[in-house]
Write a structure and sequence with these properties.
Blueprint lengths: L6 E6 L12 H21 L4 E6 L7 H4 L5 H4 L11 H6 L7 H16 L4 H22 L2
Parallel strand pairs: 1-2
Length: 143
Amino acid sequence: MRHQRNGIIVNISSLSGLVGIPSQSGYVATKFAVEGLSESLSYELEPFGIKIILIEPGPINTEFVKDIILPINKYKIDDNKNQIDTEKYYKENSSFSPYNNTIKKFLSFYYKAMDNALPPSVVADEIIQAIEKVSNEKNDCSL
């Protein structure tokens, strides 16, 4: 790309790259890193005519949601993403994670958000539109 003095790099971040989310520290850290990498690269590659596109989608309903495995006895949410009554379990077992309440709150929010989340095709469409926009800007500048 440097040699041809032209190119587009598309990075996918997330709204999680803009704001921290409890119980998602590792994921959030990677998205903040993508944000910083993209911004830094945009400055470094601009003199070579290379553009950086950063896509920051919100909740997207992917197969990821279906693949989450939750231990019922730990987060009080069953396989159907419903909260369950574990009062009896609390009496029998005291080895809960100190983050249990944080994770429970996050999962309750997360599953509700996924019910209204957009399909991955929306992100794909945004990527294509962003590439077309940047490509057209390059063409407009050269006229």
